[in-house]
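Hi team,

Filling in the usual template for the complex we talked about on Friday. All components are listed, including any nucleic acid strands or ligand strings, so the model treats them as one assembly.

SUBMITTER: L.P.
PURPOSE: interface mapping
COMPONENTS: two
RESIDUES: 802
SEQUENCES:
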Amino acid sequence: MSVFVSHRLQSVPASPIRKLVPYAVAAKKDGVHVYHLNIGDPDIKTPDVMIDVLHHWDVNPIGYDQSQGNPEFLQSLRTYYHRLGFPFIDTKHIQVTNGGSEAISMAMFAVAESGDEILTFEPLYTNYNSYAVVNGITLKAILTTLENGFHLPQRNSIENAITRKTKAILICNPNNPTGTVYTKEELRLLVDIAKEHNLFLLSDEVYREYTYDGREHVSLFSFMQEIPNLAIVLDSMSKRYSLCGIRLGALVTLNADVLSGILAIAQGRLSSGSVDQVVAARLVDVPDKYIHAVQTEYAKRRDVLYEGLQAIPGVVIPKPEGAFYTIVGLPIDDAEHFCQWLLTDFRDNNETIMLAPAAGFYASPKKGKNEVRIAYVLHTKALSRSVNILKKALSAYAQKK
Amino acid sequence: MSVFVSHRLQSVPASPIRKLVPYAVAAKKDGVHVYHLNIGDPDIKTPDVMIDVLHHWDVNPIGYDQSQGNPEFLQSLRTYYHRLGFPFIDTKHIQVTNGGSEAISMAMFAVAESGDEILTFEPLYTNYNSYAVVNGITLKAILTTLENGFHLPQRNSIENAITRKTKAILICNPNNPTGTVYTKEELRLLVDIAKEHNLFLLSDEVYREYTYDGREHVSLFSFMQEIPNLAIVLDSMSKRYSLCGIRLGALVTLNADVLSGILAIAQGRLSSGSVDQVVAARLVDVPDKYIHAVQTEYAKRRDVLYEGLQAIPGVVIPKPEGAFYTIVGLPIDDAEHFCQWLLTDFRDNNETIMLAPAAGFYASPKKGKNEVRIAYVLHTKALSRSVNILKKALSAYAQKK
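RESULT (copied from the run log):
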């Protein structure tokens, strides 16, 4: 036992996705093949034009970059946002961050005092909980349901949750973990509420490119000039270019006070990675066909997963609209126990699957007990096989009881 | 004007080192050569064995690494600490961080609640102020003086500053910005105080390898087994291997509660850079002669600077004992004005120097008004020339008045 550590350190939640890792490690040690549906680490290749930067690296020493961001990378981001259709974004509106993670954390610090509240919707991206504790913020999660495809509740349900401590609304769109893509009307609703109640609107758009069935992604950028001081977009390079290990994201806003304040924080941590930024700056040279191929691939995977799961009796799955996650209801009582059992007890031809129990994606206790989150980042053959394993496992689990 | 941002965002101090940057930029636009003595961005080459990692990169996609750190990099750090003479350090005692910056910030969060105090000594590394604001901590700085070579004050001066809100003592050793290397007796004193008052002792040892005149660096590691729950070492790869742009550091402690808590924070931000960590893991292959050559080079630079400045009338400089910074007293009233004037008005053969006013390195107001911080990271010829420019500038500045 240590003498003491801070209470706040003890309240940082351990990752619910990584909790079952020891059981997966043990299974693998026994020679069991584990299909990972529990984590969104894509197998899609990083574009060659980015890998080439490493092969041709000729800067020595590898010194600090600028605190706001590498000028070339900032220019590339500007070009990217212009191509998306938002020509009013200039480099001065962009702060480069260490992954989307730092963007979210900086935004929370910027918009709320310690003890204040930020509204969001559950199920939610679990790391929001960590950033909230680190920034002394209470995350107030409004329930969305599987039955409703995890779309937003009525206006009054949102407004009823607003207190005088509420400083912002945070959304993830397309949504991790639900796969929901909010409609234009839903964005309009949130913008109206933000305006009326003078709240910041934070939009985490890491999965912007991944929407299915011809669905349009409605970005907060579309409303940014209407609420220039309230709108903050949070972004990341990780999923768009398969650059999870290149720790780069961005915070984009027209609010000059937010920008100058977070630049001071950024100066405190000196700079983001210099090599990483030169790699990511090549995003302007990534051919359209790369993104299209990735989109097509994820759409195919979604279809395989959705059709496969729909055919299993008792499984409830809303048709995922975007990103590469979905929350699935299973015909069981305790998903945490089931997920652990899959790793410790169940084998089919010496293979099993790893899923993430969904309870960890809810802020409210007792929610999502019979749900799991599935990331469909494996190729279609592996996904088919995983669905088959799940079907057999559910049947074996039911008989066991 | 924005509608609102948080008060805490507005209290993050802008970097005092970077405040004068616009004047330097303007001078350079006019074709003036500016010698940068204001910032510790070394010109020493990154070891080839590290650059080679980039040239031979063959991992694709560039995925997340583990939250605690890349296993190979953790092993390399373990080996490094063993070679230093601390074989009790295992990989489980190490958390990899995004630069030394994140190590300091995580440590502050871990040892103190929002509103608590951490004692340190001024002049101080200015970014400590940013991390303190971000973590809601009051940094209480005890004055050390140029006359005393910025060594620690008497025991009672330190103990008198302790209140019931004090949770830790933070030192930088060798010190940025003073160049002071604390003696074994000073470390002993701090360890005794930490034990008696049940305080954490945080030691930022980023410049561990850089001590001069045969002076030994006394690491907190030497006392770690005596106060296993209280001692935390903060480290960085930036200056040791000229890897400032590879954003990697480490937090090392035997306190298991601190480690498990900060691992949860680390999980929240997923991982440090994957490419960066493979690069830095090669530290075990950096030949001793690399470090020795760098040590010799900095010792030479220190001598050139020290001897040159000593010869200027009215300049007060303690002999720098380590790191590559020194705080220098100048025969002027307002160092901030002087530093700005150097950039805007003074030219010698169309060249000038950039210095950092020392006031920004003090937490107390009105301290260090006539002092500057000098980083001696330029080669000796440039340093000689810089000293010469400073001499002429001081003379011109005195006549001007």
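MY TAKE: The radius of gyration of chain B is 21 Å. Chain B has two domains: 7-45+289-400, 59-285.

Thanks, L.
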